[in-house]
Amino acid sequence: MAESDLSRLHGVLEELAPQGRSALLPALHAAQGIYGHIPEPVAAEIGRILQVPLAELYGVIDFYALFLREPAGQTIIHVCNDPVCAMAGSETFLKTLRRQQDATGITVHWAPCLGLCEHAPAIIVKETQRGRVDPGYEGIVTEAIGESPRSLLGGDLSLLTKNCGKGRATTLKEYEEAGGYQALKLALGAAPGLVIAAIKAAGLVGRGGAAFPTALKWEAAAQASGEPKYVVCNGDEAEPGTFKDRVLLEEDPHAVLEGLLLAGYAIGAHKGYLFIRGEYTQGLRAMTAAVAEARAAGYLGTDLLGFAFEVELRRGAGAYVCGEETALFEAIEGKRGFPRVKPPFPTTHGLFGQPTVINNVETLCNVPLILTLGAAEYRQLGTEKSSGPKLFCVSGDVVRPGLYEVPFGVTIRHLLEDLAGGVRLGRKLQAILFGGAAGAFATEKDLDVRLSFEDLRQAGLPLGSGVVMVFDESRDLRDVLLRLGRFFAYESCGKCYPCQLGAQRQYEILQRVAEGRALAGDRERLADVGWTMTDASLCGLGQTAASAVLSALKIWPDLF
Question: Which terminus of the chain has fewer Cβ atoms in its 10 Å neighbourhood, N or C?
Fold first, then answer.
């Protein structure tokens, strides 16, 4: 190891050392930025300084897909090969690159969804400029990465996305000129309980998929005993078909930050964490710059109208399961992202064992909107049981894929035909996957179902995080299901057997089906494995890993 590299690493580790084990992910990212991978002597030095046993440290390195123990090429290309990108030709591109990688010195990886579904096919090209320190990461070394393409926006509303569409992050000055941080100033002039009351009156529920009432979560954490309390932004969006949080992180970072500040004030927390998916490098850069701007302006770090709050950024390292709230806590604490057994729940025993509120990006961006519009006006948007605006990620075989903001209650037909332009090339609709990889299929008979929690539930469809993946009549749904099955088999963390073994068996059966080698009884095996995972898995990953397959079994039994 070069002495200059070791000196640079020690400089980063000295800055991180006071945090102990919770600084493990930043330290590993730093080491990989310096050396291009994490050599054994470097891992040992990190473990010594952060006081992490070497066996546990390697458990963390091997758990996360983005950490490398062996050298890779200076150029690393991640090719998305999940359903939408595969339909756009990524399979051919991936095979071509792999044939060329030995001659060109590049390293090619198959990647789970990269969150660029509206621009399919998607790749990420990383130049591992070893030894490069990026000041935008507050001293943490990272690799260089290309820019994300300009977001594709549409819809009937422009509330959550009003600052998006510029192809860059909204600055603090622009955000303030558009009314930004007014909600925070209003809240700081009132009691924290009134903020929670406003969120409750507005009927806000989580936008990450579980749809849990936000105010109930905040109320429970506010009333919980134990200090300090924490608020966490879940920016680990990684499900195939989902890209709404990426757009908000990259283009309206101050809205995310203001929502996190308001959550902190409401529950009595003075520290927040922003956990951002490892592949969302541009979103991390935007949030880092926004935090610096907010700190310089006095919104962070100082006593603002009697309230002091600080934010720390955490970059993930490639693990879909960290989108589960307790797995995300484990990652922040410097551990493998294994979900915890519940109860106890995060509102009493969350991050570092303390009362914690965790919300996803879109949910937090709704909070300033509620306080500035007022709960009554906010409830005028949507339906009685599904209030406010909603972001839908439309991808696949439509004329205009993109991120669409609509009020709850419009129909699927309006979203797909009026806004997204209908099915491409004049073809007929075959299926719509709602809710992402963990979702369920809709067909033409469902086009007039309203997009609300209650209407979709009645139709047997999950709203999920707002994924709307469209397949025309030419698509082989066996191949789509195979890619979804591979995703869950790859992403299962292995903590519980129903998911670990079930996801692998599901993938193997789907592989036989897709290749025309189905065995007698495979249909029944899929159903058996699927319901076992649903009923017996520890967390939401395993509990929903068979949702799309079970839906397809019901609608198209002849597929199998």
Answer: N
298 and 209: one domain?
yes
Q: What is the pLDDT of residues 238-280, one digit of tens each?
A: 999 999 999 999 999 999 999 999 999 999 999 999 999 999 9
Look up the domain containing 463 and give its range. Answer: 389-472
Task: Kindly report the pTM of this predicted structure.
Answer: 0.96
**Residue 372 Cα to chain centre, angstroms:** 26
Ranges of H-type helices in 64-177: 83-87, 90-104, 172-177
Sequence letter at residue 156: D
Half-sphere exposure of 401 toward its Cβ, with a 13 Å CA cutoff? 26
Cα 263 to Cα 232: distance, rounded to the nearest angstrom = 9
Whether residue 68 lies inside any domain: the answer is no
The pLDDT of residue 134 is: 42
Verify that 245 and 373 share a domain, yes or no. yes
Helix axes 522-536, 497-514, angle to 10 degrees: 150
Q: Are residues 136 and 160 in the same domain?
A: no
Q: How far apart are CA 80 and CA 552, in angstroms?
A: 23
Angle between helices 477-491 and 497-514 (to 10 degrees): 150
| 402 and 521 part of one domain | no
Q: Torsions phi, psi of 203, nearest 5?
A: 75, 25
What DSSP line would sit under 185-239, residue for residue?
HHHHTS-HHHHHHHHHHHT-B-SSSS--BHHHHHHHHHHS--SS-EEEEEE---S
Q: Residue 502 — left, alpha, or beta (φ > 0 → left; ψ -120 to 50 → alpha)?
A: alpha
State the Cα–Cα distance between residues 60 and 194, nearest whole angstrom.
Answer: 42
Q: Is position 201 within any domain?
A: yes
Structural domain count of the chain: 5
Q: What are the residues facing 275 on neighbouring strands? A: 234, 314
The pLDDT of residue 519 is 96
Top-confidence residue, 558 or 136: 558
User: Which of the four pLDDT bands, split at 50, 70 and 90, describes residue 102?
Assistant: confident
Work out the burial of residue 479: count CB atoms within 10 Å of its CB; fewer than 13 is exposed, 13-18 middle, 19 or more buried. Answer: middle
**pLDDT for res 1:** 61
433's tokens: 């996957």
Distance between CA atoms of residues 388 and 159, nearest Å: 10
Burial of 71-93, coded b for 16+ CB within 10 Å and e otherwise, reads: ebbeebbbbbbbbbbbbbebbeb
CA atoms within 13 A on the CB side of 249: 29
Cis upstream peptide for 121 (omega within 30°) = yes
How many CB atoms lie under 10 A from the CB of residue 477? 19
The C-alpha angle 114, 64, 343, rounded to 5 degrees, equals: 100
Let me know whether 542 and 484 are in one domain: yes
- In this structure, the answer to whether residues 130 and 232 fall within a common structural domain is no
Burial class (CB in 10 A: 0-12, 13-18, 19+), 362: buried
Residues 59 and 98 both lie in one domain: no
Indicate whether 356 pLDDT > 50.
yes
| Cβ contact 396:84 at 8 Å | yes
